[in-house]
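Lecture notes, part 5. Sequence design as translation. It can be helpful to think of inverse folding as translation between two languages: the language of shapes and the language of residues. The source text, in C-alpha coordinates, appears below.
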Protein backbone atom coordinates (compact mmCIF):
# COMPACT_ATOMS: atom_id res chain seq x y z
CA UNK A 1 0.00 0.00 0.00
CA UNK A 2 2.77 2.44 0.93
CA UNK A 3 4.64 1.67 -2.30
CA UNK A 4 1.50 2.52 -4.29
CA UNK A 5 1.29 5.93 -2.59
CA UNK A 6 4.98 6.51 -3.20
CA UNK A 7 4.65 5.83 -6.92
CA UNK A 8 1.61 8.09 -7.15
CA UNK A 9 3.58 10.91 -5.55
CA UNK A 10 6.58 10.26 -7.84
CA UNK A 11 4.25 10.27 -10.85
CA UNK A 12 2.68 13.54 -9.71
CA UNK A 13 6.07 15.17 -9.21
CA UNK A 14 7.28 14.08 -12.67
CA UNK A 15 4.05 15.32 -14.24
CA UNK A 16 4.45 18.70 -12.55
CA UNK A 17 8.05 18.94 -13.77
CA UNK A 18 6.91 18.21 -17.32
CA UNK A 19 4.16 20.85 -17.11
CA UNK A 20 6.61 23.43 -15.75
CA UNK A 21 9.17 22.80 -18.49
CA UNK A 22 6.50 22.85 -21.21
CA UNK A 23 4.95 26.13 -20.02
CA UNK A 24 8.34 27.82 -19.83
CA UNK A 25 9.29 26.75 -23.34
CA UNK A 26 5.83 27.72 -24.66
CA UNK A 27 6.16 31.20 -23.15
CA UNK A 28 9.59 31.64 -24.77
CA UNK A 29 8.17 30.62 -28.15
CA UNK A 30 5.40 33.21 -27.76
CA UNK A 31 7.95 35.89 -26.93
CA UNK A 32 10.11 35.00 -29.94
CA UNK A 33 7.09 35.34 -32.25
CA UNK A 34 6.09 38.63 -30.64
CA UNK A 35 2.79 37.19 -29.45
CA UNK A 36 1.33 38.00 -26.08
CA UNK A 37 -1.47 36.60 -24.06
CA UNK A 38 -1.86 37.14 -20.33
CA UNK A 39 1.71 35.97 -19.88
CA UNK A 40 4.80 38.15 -19.93
CA UNK A 41 7.84 35.92 -20.46
CA UNK A 42 11.25 37.13 -19.33
CA UNK A 43 14.58 35.77 -18.17
CA UNK A 44 15.06 36.61 -14.49
CA UNK A 45 18.77 36.71 -13.70
CA UNK A 46 18.02 37.40 -10.04
CA UNK A 47 16.26 35.17 -7.58
CA UNK A 48 13.51 35.26 -4.97
CA UNK A 49 10.79 36.39 -7.40
CA UNK A 50 13.19 38.90 -8.93
CA UNK A 51 13.53 40.95 -5.76
CA UNK A 52 17.22 40.12 -5.47
CA UNK A 53 18.29 41.13 -8.93
CA UNK A 54 21.81 39.91 -9.26
CA UNK A 55 23.31 36.70 -10.49
CA UNK A 56 26.81 35.40 -10.06
CA UNK A 57 28.61 32.10 -10.01
CA UNK A 58 28.43 32.26 -6.20
CA UNK A 59 24.63 32.34 -6.29
CA UNK A 60 24.53 29.47 -8.80
CA UNK A 61 26.85 27.38 -6.59
CA UNK A 62 24.79 28.16 -3.46
CA UNK A 63 21.56 27.21 -5.25
CA UNK A 64 23.14 24.00 -6.53
CA UNK A 65 24.35 23.04 -3.03
CA UNK A 66 20.92 23.79 -1.54
CA UNK A 67 19.33 21.66 -4.25
CA UNK A 68 21.70 18.77 -3.48
CA UNK A 69 20.96 19.03 0.25
CA UNK A 70 17.22 19.10 -0.44
CA UNK A 71 17.47 16.07 -2.72
CA UNK A 72 19.49 14.20 -0.07
CA UNK A 73 16.82 14.92 2.54
CA UNK A 74 14.10 13.81 0.12
CA UNK A 75 15.89 10.53 -0.58
CA UNK A 76 16.31 9.82 3.14
CA UNK A 77 12.54 9.66 3.77
CA UNK A 78 10.99 6.39 4.78
CA UNK A 79 8.61 4.94 2.20
CA UNK A 80 5.54 5.31 4.43
CA UNK A 81 5.69 9.12 4.48
CA UNK A 82 3.84 10.26 1.32
CA UNK A 83 3.23 13.80 2.63
CA UNK A 84 6.93 14.33 3.29
CA UNK A 85 7.80 12.80 -0.07
CA UNK A 86 5.34 15.16 -1.75
CA UNK A 87 6.70 18.20 0.10
CA UNK A 88 10.33 17.40 -0.64
CA UNK A 89 9.42 16.30 -4.17
CA UNK A 90 7.74 19.62 -4.97
CA UNK A 91 10.69 21.48 -3.49
CA UNK A 92 13.24 19.47 -5.49
CA UNK A 93 11.24 19.74 -8.74
CA UNK A 94 10.82 23.50 -8.41
CA UNK A 95 14.45 24.02 -7.50
CA UNK A 96 15.77 21.68 -10.19
CA UNK A 97 13.69 23.25 -12.95
CA UNK A 98 14.74 26.77 -12.00
CA UNK A 99 18.36 25.66 -11.65
CA UNK A 100 18.20 24.19 -15.15
CA UNK A 101 16.94 27.54 -16.47
CA UNK A 102 19.66 29.44 -14.66
CA UNK A 103 22.33 27.10 -16.00
CA UNK A 104 20.99 26.93 -19.58
CA UNK A 105 19.56 30.43 -20.10
CA UNK A 106 21.54 32.51 -17.59
CA UNK A 107 18.38 33.16 -15.59
CA UNK A 108 15.02 31.67 -14.70
CA UNK A 109 12.22 31.77 -17.27
CA UNK A 110 9.43 33.71 -15.55
CA UNK A 111 6.18 34.27 -17.38
CA UNK A 112 3.32 34.78 -14.93
CA UNK A 113 2.93 38.48 -14.19
CA UNK A 114 1.28 39.29 -10.86
CA UNK A 115 -0.18 42.81 -10.82
CA UNK A 116 3.03 44.19 -12.37
CA UNK A 117 4.74 43.63 -9.01
CA UNK A 118 6.65 40.48 -9.80
CA UNK A 119 6.93 37.68 -12.29
CA UNK A 120 7.22 34.01 -11.49
CA UNK A 121 6.70 30.55 -12.96
CA UNK A 122 5.14 27.24 -11.99
CA UNK A 123 8.40 25.99 -10.46
CA UNK A 124 8.25 28.90 -8.00
CA UNK A 125 4.74 27.81 -7.05
CA UNK A 126 5.96 24.22 -6.60
CA UNK A 127 8.72 25.45 -4.29
CA UNK A 128 6.26 27.40 -2.18
CA UNK A 129 3.74 24.54 -2.08
CA UNK A 130 6.50 22.10 -1.13
CA UNK A 131 7.83 24.30 1.65
CA UNK A 132 4.34 24.97 3.03
CA UNK A 133 3.63 21.22 2.96
CA UNK A 134 6.85 20.52 4.85
CA UNK A 135 6.22 23.24 7.45
CA UNK A 136 2.69 21.96 8.10
CA UNK A 137 3.88 18.35 8.27
CA UNK A 138 6.72 19.17 10.66
CA UNK A 139 4.42 21.36 12.75
CA UNK A 140 1.94 18.51 13.13
CA UNK A 141 4.79 16.15 14.05
CA UNK A 142 6.32 18.39 16.73
CA UNK A 143 3.58 20.65 18.07
CA UNK A 144 0.99 19.01 20.26
Amino acid sequence: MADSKLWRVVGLVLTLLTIDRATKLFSLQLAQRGEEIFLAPSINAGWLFGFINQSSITIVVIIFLLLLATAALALAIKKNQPILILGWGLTVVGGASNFWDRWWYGGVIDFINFANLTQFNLADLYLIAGLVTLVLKFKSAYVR
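The translated text above is only one of many valid answers, since several sequences can fold into similar shapes. DSSP finds four helices and three strands in the chain.
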